[in-house]
Amino acid sequence: MKLIARITLFLGLPLALGACSSLKRAPNKFVVEKRWTRSTLQREYLQGRRIHRFAPVVTDNMIFAANSIDGISAYDRRTASQVWRFDVKDGVEGGAELAEGVLYFGGGDGQLYALQPENGAMLWTYPLKAEGLAEPLVKNGIVYVLGGNNVAHALDAKTGKLLWLYNRREASNLSVRGGSQPALAGDLVLIGFSDGALVALNKTSGTVVWEANLNRNKRFRDVDATPVIDGTMVYASSYDGSLYALNLADGRIVWTIDDGGYEQVQIAGNNLYFSSTSGKTMSVDKASGKILWSKENPRGIGTAPVLFKNVVIVGEMSGALRFLDTRNGELLGEFAPGRGVTSRATVEPKKGEVYFMSHDANLYALKVSWRKHVRDWPWED
């Protein structure tokens, strides 16, 4: 009997080992979870469509978000409860800059505001005399901002006193709703305008150093994309024209891609990531302009790409927030808020949190992560 038992055990051993070896370890899984959502509207809005392009501004404890209808608010990052609210007629569309302990933004009422971020108290206001459709830039005590009438302003950040302005008003009525956030490089301030020009101004005097025409013959010539500076190069696009790489010193064009854009590019290492107005998200070699991969956004034009741990985050105007692999553009996951994503996403990298605005003026907080996943049985997917 002992001999039979030993033989049975010996014969059964390969079967057991085979079963164990058939268990497969699945690759890590990219997970997108909703933490919370809340409306940014003071009251229900049932009139014409507005685009809520405000990219949320995130601090350790608070989130600042606004809609293009009635104002801007601060919310507790953990609970989404409202900390304070500041009413603005026709809302805040272009975005805000939090710098040197002050929150700066242009309103739909034609004013530029400076608020205390902890309580929303107004420090000063300045008349842009046009809608604030572009995010301000604050550097070294100076606010640079473009008004919706194509007038660029430089202001003292503490007082709002005008230092200089540059007027480039456009006669044509055909213009895309938006505006270029200025970019600073050395003594230059670079700004895009709706007549198709990218202009480099002296940051002290506001005088023109050079200008490049990025769109001469198209219907919508606007250069609303914020110029992105990388070393001796600057990257910018016109709406229905092209993506350009230019020499920073003189504005000379180095290469182009024949696909327009209205949002800023994102650069990581040797690669550039770009959302085109033809509905593509691209990875491009920044030195040569060679397209490394290109993926269609099936539900509308993409928002400005944002990078997080080898993931490209792009929102579709009529669809979802999409998470793409930086290596090949393959879809890793997505989150659909219902009627589209209209703002650039804001990422808090320490906790893997992502914030964005939807078509319905709702503020969303997501949690994204890579998780190890092991299949317990061979037949599990």
Give your account of this protein's structure.
With 381 residues, this protein is mainly β. Among the domains are: 133 residues, Methylamine Dehydrogenase, Chain H (7 Propeller); 97 residues, Beta Barrel (Lipocalin), CATH 2.40.128.630. 5% of the residues lie in helices and 43% in strands. It has one helix and 32 strands. The strands form eight sheets. Strands 1-32-31-30 form a four-stranded antiparallel sheet, with no helix packed on it. The protein has a four-stranded antiparallel sheet with strand order 2-3-4-5, with no helix packed on it. Strands 6-7-8-9 form a four-stranded antiparallel sheet, with no helix packed on it. The radius of gyration is 25 Å and the shape is globular. The relative contact order is 0.13.
Task: Write down the CATH topology of the domain at 24-40 and 266-381.
Answer: Methylamine Dehydrogenase, Chain H
What percent of residues adopt helix (DSSP H or I)? under 10%
CATH architecture of the domain at 24-40 and 266-381: 7 Propeller
Query: Number of helical runs?
Result: 1
Compute the CA-based radius of gyration: 25 Å
**In terms of structural class, how would the helical and strand content be classed?**
mainly beta
CATH class of the domain at 24-40 and 266-381: Mainly Beta
The biggest sheet, with number of strands, parallel, antiparallel or mixed sense and barrel status, is:
4 strands, antiparallel
Distance between the termini: 43 Å
Q: Strand tally, please?
A: 32
Taking pLDDT < 50 over at least 5 consecutive residues as the criterion, the unreliable ranges are: 1-23
Provide the residue-averaged pLDDT: 89
Name of the CATH superfamily of the domain at 24-40 and 266-381: YVTN repeat-like/Quinoprotein amine dehydrogenase
Strand order within the widest beta sheet: 1-32-31-30
The coarse silhouette is globular
Strand percentage lies at: 35-45%
